[in-house]
Amino acid sequence: MSADEQYVEQYARAHLVTGAADGRAVPVVLRYGGDGQVRVALPAPEGEWTFPRELLERGLRAPAAGGDIRIWPCGRVQAVIEFHAREGVAVVQFDVKALIRFLRRTYTATTPATTTG
Q1: For residue 2, what are the contacts with CB-CB under 8 A and spacing of at least 6?
Q2: Cα–Cα distances in Å, from 17 out to 22, 48, 56, 81?
Q3: 11: which strand partners?
Q4: 114 three-class SS
């Protein structure tokens, strides 16, 4: 990403639901570089995942899938993102507010910005 390219980076906490994690809160970084792609960086070993912003938008309203990613609302205040890989599946639960705030920022960003939330 070039220095003059617009981007959004937001830190969030999510709950890793799968494996030995037992729903523990983990730090997650949400990124958008103006290329239409959202990047979700999870703690190791889950890694970073990239998918279209449009998939996140759809998944907050109704179940949506694209490639190895599945997203769906979970009640009124939570959303689940499921990441599929050969090694297994990572299921992560987010507060919808954090994801909506991130999406709004992707549409309004005019300069590089970082926030916590």
Answers
A1: none
A2: 6, 17, 19, 10
A3: 29, 116
A4: strand
Residue with tokens 């979970």: 74
Residues facing residue 111 across a β-bridge? none
**Phi, psi values for residue 84, rounded to 5°:** -100, 135
Burial class (CB in 10 A: 0-12, 13-18, 19+), 63: exposed
Give the single-character DSSP code of 49: E
pTM of the model: 0.82
Rounded Cα gap, residues 46 and 90, in angstroms: 7
What's the number of CA atoms in the CB half-sphere (13 Å) around residue 29? 12
Q: Minimal CA–CA distance to 11: which of 41, 56, 38, 54?
A: 41
| pLDDT single digits (tens) 25-84 | 889 999 998 899 999 998 877 789 999 999 999 999 999 999 999 999 999 999 999 999
Q: Which residues, 6+ apart, have CB-to-CB distance to 81 below 8 Å?
A: 40, 59, 69, 70, 71, 91, 92, 94
